[in-house]
């Protein structure tokens, strides 16, 4: 039982009408007494909140799955369990949602336990009538702040600007200049380049330098989904569109409304989705899966590919009209082997990143190590370099990165000045060294097992390890 006083509604509608400063928040009332639910619902709706109701915990949990609820007002004694216990389950599943418990008169322990279980607060039915609306405002304020923090954290994690794109080479700077010029416009941009050349980093820098920087930047990798999943990911769906679609769901285009959508690996997008994308580009409209009414959005598109899209068009894999629509402004990102001059700066940057993470005191990169980096062909570009440095930092126990901490395929088996001490890549012994190292890796460094697998005596293995300087 909750309110018996009818003047309650009038007092609070008057008192708090002026305080309506938040977006419409959704409140779920879980109470088995219909009269109370209806009255509470009326009062809360009059305050401008969007209200949903449930008569028991099970129905309440279902409503939580379907609606984006900010605050739950929950009775303690419900036909299928206790609201105090349900608080725990709800907070586990929806940590941002706040819960206000309605406890029985004089039952403080319930309230205390509810707060221990994560409730925002509790009020005593009938006694604390005048507290419900102010408490609701406080709870919704906490929810909006939590949502804002989540959004800011997401933005911060993605905060790339042109200033922290590392590299001084002319070829990279030409790409940066072009990107800076186009950033402030609304033009669709196509970034091309091999894998790991920094296309996503550029896309984020363009977004952050644009007028849309305070809005969402949402990235999707078109090659990571099947056709149906990608359609759902991009455009969202209506409840009931397919088995399991219990509630309306926003797609990436809606999430990024007023912001930027980054379509990575656009060359992998199936042809019929390309038609839908063209429509978004031309009209700003699309149909959600299972919907008959178009949804309108305002997004800027930045696309990226490591394929030759022109060739994909010629081969019939990519729509020509879409190609011309997205390739308005193309920026190509150079592979790392074409900007060897940037390798040192990048290596120092990643060394700093990983020593900070691991608390190691490595502050130097040896000449040989750097030379080996410069001679490598870097098919995985900056991503590969980053991984190589991370590996070396893990393996290094001194203050300097040495060549022997590099993967074997990067180690130059001998430099010009100490050729006599090391092995030429053509010598049979170099193959033996690599093979022993591989078997040692396979056995996690277990020498007895390694010698057995190699079919040599353990003493021979030790001799060879010493001879080839295997670590
Ligand atoms: N100029 C740069 N300075 C520092 N880090 C960079 C730079 N460019 C790329 N990186 C880093 O290299 C990695 C690969 O970059 P990114 O994901 O942007 O490449 P990509 O071209 O989009 O790759 P893919 O085509 O495989 O999606 C990331 O970890 C990124 O942080």
UniProtKB/TrEMBL annotation:
<dbReference type="InterPro" id="IPR002078">
    <property type="entry name" value="Sigma_54_int"/>
</dbReference>
<feature type="domain" description="Response regulatory">
    <location>
        <begin position="26"/>
        <end position="140"/>
    </location>
</feature>
<dbReference type="InterPro" id="IPR058031">
    <property type="entry name" value="AAA_lid_NorR"/>
</dbReference>
<keyword id="KW-0597">Phosphoprotein</keyword>
<protein>
    <submittedName>
        <fullName>Two component, sigma54 specific, transcriptional regulator, Fis family</fullName>
    </submittedName>
</protein>
<feature type="domain" description="Sigma-54 factor interaction">
    <location>
        <begin position="165"/>
        <end position="394"/>
    </location>
</feature>
<keyword id="KW-0547">Nucleotide-binding</keyword>
<dbReference type="Pfam" id="PF02954">
    <property type="entry name" value="HTH_8"/>
</dbReference>
<keyword id="KW-0804">Transcription</keyword>
<keyword id="KW-0805">Transcription regulation</keyword>
<dbReference type="GO" id="GO:0005524">
    <property type="term" value="F:ATP binding"/>
</dbReference>
<dbReference type="GO" id="GO:0043565">
    <property type="term" value="F:sequence-specific DNA binding"/>
</dbReference>
<dbReference type="GO" id="GO:0000160">
    <property type="term" value="P:phosphorelay signal transduction system"/>
</dbReference>
<dbReference type="Pfam" id="PF00158">
    <property type="entry name" value="Sigma54_activat"/>
</dbReference>
<dbReference type="Pfam" id="PF25601">
    <property type="entry name" value="AAA_lid_14"/>
</dbReference>
<dbReference type="InterPro" id="IPR025662">
    <property type="entry name" value="Sigma_54_int_dom_ATP-bd_1"/>
</dbReference>
<dbReference type="InterPro" id="IPR001789">
    <property type="entry name" value="Sig_transdc_resp-reg_receiver"/>
</dbReference>
<keyword id="KW-0067">ATP-binding</keyword>
<dbReference type="GO" id="GO:0006355">
    <property type="term" value="P:regulation of DNA-templated transcription"/>
</dbReference>
<dbReference type="InterPro" id="IPR011006">
    <property type="entry name" value="CheY-like_superfamily"/>
</dbReference>
<dbReference type="InterPro" id="IPR009057">
    <property type="entry name" value="Homeodomain-like_sf"/>
</dbReference>
<dbReference type="InterPro" id="IPR027417">
    <property type="entry name" value="P-loop_NTPase"/>
</dbReference>
<dbReference type="Pfam" id="PF00072">
    <property type="entry name" value="Response_reg"/>
</dbReference>
<dbReference type="InterPro" id="IPR002197">
    <property type="entry name" value="HTH_Fis"/>
</dbReference>
<dbReference type="InterPro" id="IPR003593">
    <property type="entry name" value="AAA+_ATPase"/>
</dbReference>
<feature type="modified residue" description="4-aspartylphosphate">
    <location>
        <position position="75"/>
    </location>
</feature>
């Amino acid at each position: 039982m909750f309110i018996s006083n009818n003047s309650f509604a009038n007092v609070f509608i008057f008192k708090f009408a002026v305080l309506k400063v938040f977006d419409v928040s959704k409140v779920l009332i879980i109470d088995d007494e219909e009269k109370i639910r209806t009255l509470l619902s009326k009062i809360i709706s009059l305050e401008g909140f969007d209200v949903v109701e449930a008569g028991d915990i099970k129905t309440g949990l279902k409503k939580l799955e379907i609606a984006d609820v900010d605050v739950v007002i929950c009775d303690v004694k419900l036909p299928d369990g206790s609201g105090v216990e349900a608080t725990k389950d709800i907070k586990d599943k929806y940590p941002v949602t706040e819960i206000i418990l309605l406890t029985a008169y004089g039952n403080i322990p319930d309230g205390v336990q509810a707060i221990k279980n994560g409730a925002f607060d509790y009020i005593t039915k009938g006694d604390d009538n005048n507290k419900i609306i102010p408490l609701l405002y406080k709870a919704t304020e906490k929810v909006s702040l939590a949502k804002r923090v989540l959004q800011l954290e997401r933005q911060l994690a993605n905060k790339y600007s042109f200033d922290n794109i590392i590299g001084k080479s002319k070829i990279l700077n030409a790409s940066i200049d072009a990107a800076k010029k186009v950033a402030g416009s609304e033009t669709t941009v196509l970034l091309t380049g091999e894998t790991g050349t920094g296309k996503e980093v550029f896309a984020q820098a363009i977004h952050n330098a644009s007028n849309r920087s305070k809005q969402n930047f949402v990235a999707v990798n078109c090659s990571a989904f099947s056709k149906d999943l990608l359609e759902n990911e991009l455009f969202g769906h209506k409840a009931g569109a397919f088995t399991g679609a219990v509630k309306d769901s926003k797609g990436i285009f809606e999430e990024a409304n007023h912001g930027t959508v980054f379509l990575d690996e656009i060359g992998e997008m199936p042809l019929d989705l390309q038609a839908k994308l063209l429509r978004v580009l031309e009209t700003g409209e699309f149909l959600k899966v299972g919907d008959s009414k178009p949804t309108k959005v305002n997004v800027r598109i930045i696309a990226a590919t490591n394929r030759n899209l022109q060739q994909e068009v010629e081969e019939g894999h990519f729509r020509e009209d879409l190609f011309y629509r997205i390739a308005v402004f193309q920026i190509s990102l150079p592979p790392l082997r074409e900007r060897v001059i940037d390798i040192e700066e990048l290596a120092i940057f990643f060394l700093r990143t990983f020593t900070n993470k691991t608390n190691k005191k490595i502050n130097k990169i040896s000449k040989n190590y750097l030379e080996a980096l410069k001679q490598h062909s870097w098919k995985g570009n900056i991503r590969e370099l980053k991984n190589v440095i991370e590996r070396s930092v893990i393996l290094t126990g001194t203050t300097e990165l040495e060549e022997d901490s590099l993967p074997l395929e990067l180690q130059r088996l001998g430099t010009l000045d100490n050729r006599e001490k090391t092995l030429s890549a053509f010598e049979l012994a170099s193959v033996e060294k690599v093979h022993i190292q591989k078997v040692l890796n396979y056995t996690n460094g277990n020498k007895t097992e390694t010698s057995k697998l190699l079919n040599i005596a353990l003493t021979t293995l030790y001799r060879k390890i010493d001879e080839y300087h295997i670590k």
